[in-house]
Amino acid sequence: MIEKGTDNVSVELRQQLGLLTDRSTEDFWVRIHKRAMAGWKFGLSESFFRKTLYVAGTFVLVILIAIFLSLVVASIPAIRHFGVGFLFGTTWDPVRGEFGALPFVMGTLFVSLLALAISTVFSLSISIFLGEYFRGGVISAFITSVIELLAGIPSVIYGFCGLFLLVPVVRALEIKLNVAPYGVGILTSSLVLAVMIIPYSASIGREVISLVPSDLKEAAFSLGATRFEVVRKVVLPYARSGIFAGILLSLGRALGETMAVTMVIGNSNFIPKGIFSPANTLASVIANEFTEATGRLYLSSLVELGLVLFMVTTVINIFGKVIIGRMGMEDK
Amino acid sequence: MKELAIRRRIIADKSFKTIVVLLSFASILPMFFILFFIISKGISVVDWTFLTHLPKPVGEIGGGISNAIIGTLMLIAVSIIFSVPVGVFAGVFLCEYRKGSFAYFVKLAIETLQGIPSIVIGIVAYVWVVLPMGSFSGLSGGVALALMMLPVIITATEETLKLIPDSLREASLALGVSYPRTILKVVLPAGLSGILTGILLSVARVTGETAPLLFTAFGSPFMNFNILKPINTLPLMIFNYATSPYTEWHTLAWGASFVLVVFVLGLNLFTKVVTRKWKVQF
Amino acid sequence: MESAVLKIENFSAFFGENQVLKEINLSIPQNRITAIMGPSGCGKTTLIRCVNRMHELIPDARVSGKIFLDHEDIYATDPIIVRRQIGMVFQKPNPFPMMSIYDNVIAGYNLNGVKLTKGEKEKIVEESLKRAALWDEVNESLHRRGTFLSGGQQQRLCIARALAMRPAVLLLDEPTSALDPKATSHIEELIMQLKDTVSIILVTHNMAQAARVSDFTAFVYLGELVEFGPSGRMFTAPKNKRTEEYLSGKFG
After folding, report:
1. DSSP-assigned beta bridge partners for residue C6
2. CATH code of the domain covering residue C127
3. Which of the residues in chain B have pLDDT under 50?
4. Which of A260, B130, B160, B224 is the least crowded, having the fewest Cβ atoms under 10 Å away?
5. Residue A1 — very low, low, confident or very high, per pLDDT cuts 50/70/90?
C-alpha cells in the first residue's frame, strides 16, 4: 500500500495516507500495546525462579550427603559390634552371627585386579588402534560403534551369557587341569568383567592418545623412528596419566559391578584360595543375601559392606577424575 | 650390521601393528557372540503369547513375560517423574551459576553420585523407602533408578545449555521477556535435543539395571499395576529365571533377554536419530 | 527545537571499578535517526545497553545519573517494561532458531504470555514484516523456520520482531557490520523509512554510514560525549578538535 518513491514525494504521501487510513491501525496498536504492558504482572517472579534453581542445586548436594549418612547410620549396629576388625574378619557365618568382610574384600580384589589386567591389554590395543592407526573412516566408526554397544548391554545379560557360554568352557578347562570343576569362580568372573570394562578405559585411552601433539610425533618420525617406536617412546609416555586415569575409572566400574559377577562367581563366603575358587565380592554377597538377611546385625553388616564399597569406589573415581581434569588443563 | 638392525625394527613395527589390530578385533568378538546367542536362542521363544501372557508356574510349559514388560515400563515412568524435573533444573542451575563456588561442590556431588555402584543405590532406596513402607514396592525401585538417572540428566542439561550462545538470551531479554520466561521458553527449548538425549540415554541405562531392584522392586510372578507393591521387570526376571534350576525357565530367560537387548539397543539407536533431527544449529 | 524522546542526564556507567561512561548529557530527538559513533571501546555500545537496561545484566555493573523516556525515569521503572518500550537489534542477527518466521515476529507477545486472537497476531506479523521490508520475500513461508534466510533477511526479521512491540525507541547496535554491502544498503534504506513511527539510535563505527543515514550524530570518545549535533554539520564542520581528528582518521 505504501510505496517507496523518491524521498520527498513518499514522505508526503505517507503522511497523507497515515492520517487518512491508519487511524484504525493506530487504535489497534494502542490497544495491543496496552495489553502488552499490562500482561507482565502475572507470571513467575525472577527471584522466586532463581531460588528454585538454587534449591535444585542444593537438593543434589543434600541427596549425596543423605546417601552417605543413610549408609553410615544403617551400618552402626555392625560397626559398634565388630569395630574395625570387621574388615579383617575371615569368617562370614550368618548362622553363628559372625560377620567378617575379608573373604569379600579379597574376592573383590582378586576379581577386579585380574579383570583389569586382562582388559587393559585389549583396551590399550583399542586405544592405540583408534587413536593412532585408524583415527577416522569406516573401520574406526565400526569399532567405535561396537565398543559403544558393548557398554550398553545390561549386566544381567553378560551374566546370563557368561553362565551358559563361558562356564562350560571353564569347567572343561578345569577338568583338563584336574581341579574341581566348578565352572564358576574367580577366573570366570574376571573374564566376564574384563569384557564389560573394556569400553571405559578404551574410550578415555583413545582420547588421550589422539590428543598427543602431532609435532612431537613428527619430530620422532623425521629421525627415522618406526610407528611402533614412536608409539612406545613418544605417544604412550605423553598419554601416560590419561591412560592411567582410564584404568582407574575402569577399576571403579569393576569394583561396583554386581549382576554379571554374581551369576558366575559361585557364591562362596570363604576366602578364595586360587583362581578357580568360587568366591563372593562385596557386591555379589549383598546381592545374594540381602533379601534373606534376618536380624539387625546381619542386615547391618551387609549395609556396612555397601558402605565400604561406596567409599572405595568414590575415592578411586574422584582420583581418576582429578587426573583427567589436570590433564585437560595441561593440554591447554 | 646396520641393515639387520633396521630390518629387525621394521619387523617389530609390523608385528606390533598386527598385534594391535588382532587384539582390537578380538575385543569386539564377545559382542558378536553375545548377540548371536541371544538372537538364536531367544528369537524362537518370542511370539505374541510370550509378550502378552504371564509366566506359568514351574513345570508348566509356556507362559510369558507380560508382567515384566509392564513392570519395566512402569518403573521407567516413575523414575522419569522423579528424576527429570529435578535433573533439568539442577542442570539449569549449574549453567546459570557456573561461576560460583557452590556450583563446584554440586558438580562434585554429581560426579560422586554417578560413580556409586548400583547395588549401593539399592541399599539406599531400601533404607529410604522399603523400611518405612514395610514392604517392597515399585516406588522404591523407581527411587533407586531415579538416583541413577539424575547425574546423566543433569550433566546433559548443563552441557547442552552451556553451548547455547548468550545472543539468544539477549534477544529474548531485549524484548522485555522476564528471566524465568527466557530460560523456560527460549533457552530450554533451544537445548531440547541435548536434554532429551540425556534423558533417553539414562533410560536406556536403567532399563537394564537389576542390582538396585533386587531388594526394592523385588520382582513378582503376578501382573501388578500398583506402584506400592512389588513389581517385576525384564532384568529381574532374567536374573531369577537364569539362575533357577528349571530349563523351561532358562528358555523364557533367553526370550526375555532378546526382548531386553532389542529394547535397549533400539533405544540407543533412537536416541541418535532424535538428537540429529532435533538439533538446533547456531 | 526538536522534541526529545530520550533525555540522558549526567549518566555514568561502571564495570566494577572501571568507569566506562562519564557524565553523559544527551537528548535524543524524536522521530529522527541519531547515530552514536566513536572508536572501538569508547562506550557507545555500553551507552545504548544502558538505555534498555541490558547493561545491568552483567554482574558488577553499576550506573549513576538518569535517563528519561518521555519524562519517565527508566531506572525507576521495572526493566521489563522499559525493554518493551525500547527495542534492540544486535550486531549479529539473532532470530530464535527453533521458531518459525511468524513466531519470531510475534515472539515479544508470545513469550510474555500476552493473549492475542489469531487475527490480531496475523495483523501484527504482516504489518511488522512490511515495515521491515521483508513481507514480500517471506509471506509464502511464514511458518518455516528462519534458518534459510540470508544474513540481511535475518537482520530484517530481527527488526520486524523489535518493531512488532511498537517501541518508542529502536536501538540498533552496529546492525550491518556482519552483513555484505548489498544487505547493508537495504537495511540503511529501511532504517531511513522507519523514523516516521519510531525514534532510532544507531551505533556504528562506520563513519560513512553515520553520514549517509543519520539526522544527528553524537561522537563518544573514551566514555565522554565529545560532540553532538546535526549530522550534516558534524561531518563537514565539526566544532571539537577531537571529533575532527577522529573523522580524519587520526585515531580509531
Report:
1. C28, C69
2. 3.40.50.300
3. none
4. B224
5. very low
B84-129 tens-digit pLDDT = 999 999 999 999 998 889 999 999 999 999 999 999 999 999 999 9
Checking if the pLDDT of A69 tops 80, the result is yes
Fill in the amino acid letter for B25: F
Q: Name the pTM for this structure.
A: 0.89
C-beta separation of C14 from C61 below 8 A: yes
Q: Find the closest chain A residue to B87 by CA distance.
A: A56
Chain B residues with CB inside 8 Å of C165's CB?
175-176
Is A198:A120 a contact under the CB 8 Å cutoff? no
Q: Which residue in B208, B31, B242, B35 sits closest to A164, CA to CA?
A: B242
Buried b vs exposed e over B141-162: b needs ≥16 C-beta within 10 Å? bbbbbbbbbbbbbbbbbbbbbe
What residues contact residue A302 under an 8 Å CB cut-off, 6+ apart? A285, A286, A289, A290, A293, B123
B196 touches chain C (CB under 8 A): no
- Look at residue A42 in the predicted model and tell me its pLDDT: 55
d(CA B267, CA B261): 10
Closest CA to A303 of A77, A92, A83, A88: A77
Distance from CA of B184 to the nearest CA of C (A): 10
C-alpha to C-alpha distance for B197 and A167, rounded to whole angstroms? 37
Helix H segments across chain B? 2-42, 48-52, 66-96, 101-115, 118-125, 131-133, 138-162, 166-174, 179-182, 188-190, 192-207, 234-242, 247-278
Is the CB of residue B65 less than 8 Å from the CB of residue B234? yes
Identity of the residue in C109, C127, C193 whose CB atom sits nearest the CB atom of A36 = C109
Query: Residues C79-96: pLDDT tens digits?
Result: 988 999 999 999 999 999
Q: Which domain covers residue A279, as residue numbers?
A: 82-331
* C78 in contact with chain A, both atoms CB, cutoff 8 A: yes
**Residue A36 near chain C (CB below 8 Å):** yes
Q: Which residues in chain A have Cβ-Cβ distances shorter than 8 Å to C123?
A: 28
3-class secondary structure, A52 = helix
What residues form DSSP beta bridges with C64? Answer: C12
Q: Is residue C84 within 8 angstroms of chain A, CB to CB?
A: yes
Nearest CA-CA distance, residue C93 and chain B, Å: 9
The sign of the CA dihedral B213, B214, B217, B221 is positive
| Domain-embedded: residue A264 | yes
Mean of pLDDT values over A173-182: 89
What's the ipTM?
0.92
- Asked if C95 is an interface residue toward chain B (Cβ–Cβ < 8 A), one would say yes
Please indicate whether, in this complex, the C-beta atoms of C97 and B189 are within 8 angstroms of each other.
no
User: Domain range spanning residue C40?
Assistant: 4-247
CA within 13 Å, CB half, A64: 22
* Distance to chain B for C8, nearest Cα, Å: 20
Shortest CA gap A33–chain C (Å): 7
Query: Structural domain tally of chain A?
Result: 2
* Chain A touching partners, 3 or more CB pairs below 8 A: B, C
Strand partners, C172: C89, C202
Q: Taking the CA atoms of A237, A242, A247 and A248 in sequence, report the sign of the dihedral they define.
A: positive
**A15, A103: one domain:** no
Say how far apart CA B180 and CA C94 lie, in whole Å: 20
CB contact under 8 A, C166 and A14: no
Residues A14, A155, single domain; the answer is no
Instruction: Report the pLDDT value the prediction gives residue A18, as an integer from 0 to 100.
Output: 41
Residue type, A164: F
Q: Residue A265 maps to which CATH number?
A: 1.10.3720.10
